[in-house]
Each structure stands twice: as C-alpha cells, then as structure tokens.
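Illustration: N-(5'-phosphoribosyl)anthranilate isomerase.
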Amino acid sequence: MAGTLVKICGISTPQTLAAAVQAGASHVGFVHFPKSPRHLSLADAAGLRALVPAQVKAVLLLVNPSPDVLADAVREVHPDVVQFHGSETPDALARFRADTGLEAWRALAVRDAASLADAGTFRGAADRVLLDAPASALPGGNGTRFDWSLLSGWDAPLAWGLAGGLTPANVAEAIRLTGAPLVDTSSGLERSPGIKDVDKIAAFCKATRI
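Result:
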C-alpha cells in the first residue's frame, strides 16, 4: 500500500534515530517504562527528541503513568504523540487530549475477533489505536504477532496501526493482508535487546513501499 506510515519504536541512540529518519519513517518512538530493555530516562528521551526533524513525529510510550509522571513526561520530552500501552481508559485519554492538545494513541491487545470491538470504545477519545499481540513479559515489544486474518472485513472505527512481530521479511505481506495505514515495529529490528540495527531499519522502511 502506497503511503503507509511507519513508526520505528524503541529508538535509543542518535545513530538509530538518524537511520530511521533517513529511511523515511513517519514516526519514531521512545520508551519510558523501566521494565523494558528499551527504557529511556525522560532526560535521555528529551535529548533524542530534540534531534527529531519537523517532518517526523516523536512518540513517547508510557504504561499506566501516574498523573505526575505523565505531566513530567510531557513537560520534559515535548512529544508530538503519547502512546498509552497499559490499561488506560477512554476517559483518561480524552482528558489528556483536552488538557495538552497532543495526540493520544492507545495500544490494544488482539486475542480474537471480540478484542477488536474494544477499539470502538476509543472513538472520539484516542487519535489512533495500535493493534498489537497480547502481552507476555512486557506490554509490547515482544516480537510476537496476532492472527492478521482477524482484520479481514473489519470496519475500523478510528485511525489505527498494526504492531506485533513485524520485521523486514513480513511487513509487506502484513500491509497487503490487512491494509494497515500505519505499521509499528520495535524488537523486529534489533540486533540485541534494546539496540536497533540500522540496516534492518532501512530494510523495513523499504519493504513498506514494495
């Protein structure tokens, strides 16, 4: 699909950030979640965010942040988007958008067709939902995928993206099968936990345009 948006999540170095930008990523993601191997302090996330050019959106991933953590994160990092990757409610996201004027995304674990119905609860509250594989050790970034055939005939109630187990080898097929307007990858581009591979970043972005 031409024009598919690409989010490279879990960026942790200036070199991998530059690789994502050069490869044509539309979004780059920074993770602030201590249990993740991709965790960045707010100061480190802010340092990388300052290097993001205007044509690329900076996404900050948080998991069930307290009000104080959320406020600190927005103030220090100045993201374009906050991606909520826990059990945050539609009301919480709606309040966040109203208070900050920033985009709010919500990750949703897709286990079966019934899981997709949850997306509708975020219509008018989130700017986008990210359909991801069910959590295991971490809320995301586990390198596993859900059954993409569940999306056949799905009438999306709001903007959405596909996440979970995407790699340079399978992303073109994923886009073809699901029609995803945005694809989101993290562990599928790593050479070791938390460390992206610049060649895999380039290959992934190229594959989305095939």
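Reading the tokens back as a structure: The CA atoms of residues 19 and 198 lie 6 Å apart.
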